[in-house]
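Handout, tutorial session.
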Amino acid sequence: MRKIYIENVKGTEKVAKPILDAEGRILLAKGMPLRLHYISKLKEMGVVSLYIEDQFSEGIEPESSLSELVFEKSKNQIKNIIKSTKQSKEIDTEEIGNVVEQIMDELLYEEDVLIHAGDILFYDEYTYAHSIHVCVLSIIMGKALGYSIPRIKELAIGALLHDLGKIFVPEEILNKPDKLTTEEFRKIQLHPQDGYQVLRPFREISGLSKLIVLGHHEKIDGTGYPAGLKGDQIHEAVRLVSICDVFASMTSDRVYRKKIKTYEVIEYLIAMSGQAFDASLVSAFIDHIVIYPTGQGVLLNTGEKGIVVKQNRHMTSRPIVRIFWNAKGEKISPYEIDMTKETTIFIIDQVDL
């Protein structure tokens, strides 16, 4: 099984995971052939990518930080919470706690949980899936940094609700494919304060969680917003969530752009360390990232092309790759390379197969 962009479907593949609509109804069941007329309809519905079975993906099981069951349940819960809050300006703090606890229950007791790029299959699910993704990344990092369980829960609630204030931003601005006007950007910049104001009356939400919502766009060098805080003026938990937020956003598909390759996002985080981001937290974050996802097509420095079939968990830049094409571009009998054992071979790019 592997995930591909819908525009790369050739019509010879089979569905590897059921394709669901926004209400959870099955559009295409597992095992169904992907006919071209299905693809046209799915594109019209805003499907970005999907999981397929084909000649390259035999025996491959893409990994994720969170199980599909918990992810879908949490996404639907946060969707309902946000929609309800938009209407009433009240927030269901008990349900927020339930969402965070079910995610924590899955992540905290697993060994060596790694950070994966976002798994957003529909454009219109971005807001909800992004909230879950940032929450997941924050929990993984809170655990890695040795935070206590209560502190991780505060961190996770703040991460889950970090973009709550965007309920006040018009959809046409949030999804605008062109550059924002100055006035539109000012409206976007109000979302930390707006989210904080919604949460402020609720004593069940901790001060730290509220601080994360208010401060997740602050930058180490003081050029962020809303308060222009610098360095240690920004709480470590806030600095951590800001990294998780940017990583989750950049590695996800949006209406106006495709996701950015994970290794390019890593380069960006490193380049902005000490300016936008806390350098020590960026370093810790990178140690836990899956750079080349399982099922991803890759090009090696030898000129050979293949697909990542498995991660080496303690050296994620050097996974196990199944080779299908030689350096001349000729298709060959597949064989696998464990890149931790072939130290002169390395990946130079991600490619579509």
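The second record follows below. Compare its token runs with those of the first.
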Amino acid sequence: MESLFSDTAELRLMLAFESALATAQASMGVIPASVAETIKNCCAETDWDIESIKTQTLLAGNPAIPFVDQLRQRVRQKSPEAAQYVHQGATSQDVIDTALMSQLRQAIDQLKADLEELINQLTKLRQTYQHTPMMGRTLLQQALPITFGDKLAGWLSGLFRSTERLDRVRQECLVIQLGGPVGNGQSFGAHYRTICELMAAELDLGTTATAWHTQRDRLADLASTLGILNGSLGKLANDIILLMQTEVGEVREGAAEGKGGSSSMPHKRNPVTSTFMVAIAHRTPYLVASLLGAMNQPHERAAGAWHSEWPVIRELVKLTAANLHHANDLIRTLDVDTARMQQNLTTQP
């Protein structure tokens, strides 16, 4: 996930945007085909001065401005005539938002795969322990008997719903951004809608009836979906921490050299992986709230609110990926003590 949100990856996706834009415009006769080919060839090159773009971003306010300058200079070296057509009709936010959507598309595909792996592991565990009796607990007190399969079914139900949510946001929220300077598409001329559709198809993104420069509900929807998923993972991990308590002892994290020890109490076997998961679940709601707060963006372009989204959505995605990684490791090596479950049933107060 780190490589997906690297500077190199982001630059590659910004180049893909400019290549797709020129190709779509040429197909509609807006720019000469030879010009589009020159721009496309330049976008395929790999020797870009990323450090210069990062330095100039501090002066320009966003990375698209120095990026487009570099691209235009490179195109000019090959064809002075073609340089004027680089980025034609587009604005900085078109490039940056579309690159972000492309990153999020790849990220969600990976998150979905990791979530499906976790669901498969839990499903197998449920099949193994579906009839294994254990004590149910309400308000942290022993209540009535359930099965370990019942508890696994509860964990699975929330994760199944998160799978459905990820599928929905993958379909509905990951869309191209293309509106031009004030978001109405007029800068692209009469073929605006067709250009949007051609670019979206090329970039494997959806299309929208209008640009969404200051309509950030899709990003907030996606963030909320990730927040809910992290909440479900945190609940699972918290249950395991409680089941690992010395006086309960019904499950344990898988053993590994140096894992779960105490610096002062060598007899302890502490939860580690599940602790990481709970910590992530405590962090992510505030990231979601930040993106919800950033929805308040004035007029046709925001100063600050849009920019505030950049590090937050990336951090949220990375933490979600880490949480799923920990969850898969936790369930893969989980040690279930059925004898202790039976003992706790017979020794209830």
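Points raised in discussion: DSSP finds eleven helices and four strands in the chain.
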